[in-house]
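Request: Have a read of the protein record below and say how the chain folds.
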Amino acid sequence: MGPMNASPLRVGLIGYGLAGSAFHAPLIAASRDLTLHTVVTSRPERARQAREDHPGVRTVADADAFFADTGALDLVVVATPNRTHVALAERALRAGLPVVVDKPLAATASEAESLAALAEERGLLLSVFHNRRWDADFRTLRAVLDRGDLGTVHRFESRFERWRPKPKGGWRESGDPADVGGLLYDLGSHVVDQALALFGPAATVYAESDVLRPGAEADDDTFIAILHTGGVRSHLWVSALAAQHGPRLRVLGDRAAFVTHGLDPQEDALRAGERPGGPEWGVEPPSAWGTLGTVAEAAPVPSLPGDYPAYYAAVAEALRSGGQPPVTALEAADTLRVLEAARHSAARRVTVTLA
C-alpha cells in the first residue's frame, strides 16, 4: 500500500455497473483527497466508458490481474454484485489494502463480523457504503431530533417505494439466495441502517414479505417492524409496486411530528451524469422540504443539503488518521442481523427477539 501522505489516496474500483459508474466513481473523482487510479470490469464497453468518464484511469479486465498488481493503491472499493462482496473484500484485506464495500456488506451478520475481525487483525479500514445517512431529509431529521423539536419520539416511519410493475430482471431481482437479491437486502439495507443509526439496537423484529409481480422471483413488497431497545418503534416499507408513494419519513413524538415526501436529489443527479462539487449539490427546493409541527400548526423546515461526498471525505480522513470510518463493518453487521431476522419472521410468521 502506498504512503498516506498529503497526495490524493489512490483508489482501485472493482465493478463499473450502476453502483460503480454512477455512485462510487463520481464521488471518488470529486474528492480532493482521493483519485480514481484503476477500474476493474470484465466488459469492454464498460472499460471504454470508464476511460471516457475518467481520462487517465487504468482499466483491468479481472480481479486476478488486479490483485496481482496493487502496489500503487491505497484503497479498494468493491462495487460488484452482492454475491461477490465477501470474497473480494476478504481478498483485498489479505492483500493488505483498506476496503470500502457497497451495501450490503454480506448476506449474513456472521460473514460481516468475520470480515470485521479480519480487518481488525490486519489493522485495516473496512467500511460499508450506507450512503443514505447523507440524504438531505435524513440529515435534516437528525438536526430536528438533536434540537429536541419532537419531544420524546415513539414511532419512526420510513418508506422506499417505487412503481415498477414489470420486473427488470438481473441479479438484484434474482430468487437465488446466493445472489442476495430482493428489496429486503437492496432498499431494506437503507431503511434499517437509518433506523438503527437514529434509534439504536433492535430488540425485536417482525416482517411481512411478498413476491407480488408476475414473473418476479425475489421479494418486491416488504414491511419491517422494529422495537428498539430504547423503546422507539420503527415501521419500514420497501416496495416495487407502489402506484402512489407514502411519506418518505414520518416521525412522531409527544410534542410534534416531522414528515417528508420524495427522495433526496443526489441519486437522480448522479445517474444523469452530474458531478458533486457545486454550491447547489444536494440542495432540495422548498417544495421538497419536510414539515414540523402538529395538526393545529405545522411549518416547513429548510432541508440541509444532501452530502454523499462527505462519506468519502470521512473515509480519507480515517485512512490518514487511523480513526474510525464513517460506517463500520460492525454497524453493517447489526443491519444484516435485522434483515436476517426479518426474512425469518416473514417466512415463519413470528416475531424474532434479538435482545
Remarks:
- The mean pLDDT is 95.
- The longest strand covers residues 153-161.
- The two ends are 40 Å apart (CA to CA).
- The chain has ten helices and 15 strands.
